[in-house]
Amino acid sequence: MSNMFRISQYNHFQPYTDGYHLAYNARSGAVALMTEENFASYRELVDRITSGTISDLTPEEEKLLQQLEYGRFIYPDDYDELEALKFQHHLSRFEQSQIGFTLAPTMACNMACGYCFEENKRGRMPAKVIEGFIDFVEKRAPGLLRVDINWYGGEPLLAMGIIEDITETLLDLGQQHNFLYTASMISNGYLLSRETVDRLAELKISMIQVTLDGPARLHNAKRPLKNGGDSFDRIVENISYASTKMAIGVRVNIDKSFNKNIIEEMLEELKRADLQDRVGVYFGQLEASATVCANISESCYNANEFSAIEVEYYRLLLDHGFRIERLPSPTSAYCIAQQINGFLLDPDGDLYRCFNHAGDKSKTMGNIRDSINYRHQNFMRLFRFDPFDDESCRNCSILPICLGGCPARRADRGMTGDEMCESWKHNLRPMLEIIARSKQLQAAMTAKEQ
To answer: pTM value?
Structure first.
């Protein structure tokens, strides 16, 4: 074993309960509990590594050293973790063996949410656009290992026939060219009947994100049906069945109208539907990210404010018996805007680089039926930012889990500094404590069931 090591810049250690310490590394995503004794041994090892006098270790110290290296808390002296992260990021940027598409088969919706950017869009993806998309994939199919589709809208289930046709064609192509096909969906959940859920499972959709904007009384006011009717009860009934067939993520869009009592009221309603062990609940920061959203800007939190609220609401989740599925996981790219083979396709065949740009024709980078122009300004304006060229990002201890944050915030809204940072930058310590508590509770329940 090499006697020369370096200490990772992505280490995070903090006191936990009962004399334990929490250890987290943002490069590997490793989370561990350390006894007081182990933590003291770690501190001593750090001193010895720093001074270059690491030798004659006891068997216990050797074992700890191996565990630390496995979790990437330390690494060999001849390895450069920043350069390795940079290399991984650039591989992901220019990866061509996989394609990621967010497909909006329609921009029409059966709801009339006040903060939605869609307004009153109609229409469905015509045959010529579907053909253009299939042709795009087919031309690249011989070199593909994976195709990832995320169904989006509007409400994608209003165009179920298109979803079926495209999926069946892609599944056939996958068999012919031996690439993996995976799919997910963002839906308001109202049309997720049992029959539809069963069909979506057949179409390889493994995860659906559904939005609930608070308890029934508030959700029904914020997300009314186009005919003015209520939607909450039916959505909850739908996801109750859907959760037996696929992963269901419940997103709650948080603005300043929420408070602790409102969240608790919603969680009690989900518990009455017996969903606390069957869905993952997470909180999204509502942002005035598109021009038509300017009417909600005064009710939106900034990143720093939201990070504090997020901690409070995740504590409520834990207290009410819900599992915590929000994890600070390392990634190779923030989103499709950082990758050359990731696009959002609208029903007209226009290509975008960001969810928030869908339908805004000034933000398109071309059409699926034309050759991809990687020099187009709407491609480059989001793609050009490299977090490794930014000193604050390069030196940041959580760089591997955000890689510079949302490119559209920089390009569209001129955000800089801490405004750009993900909430992990502001609340990592309390969130790690919540995540650790959740994992301990899950482990205890699993042991009890056995």
So the answer is: 0.91
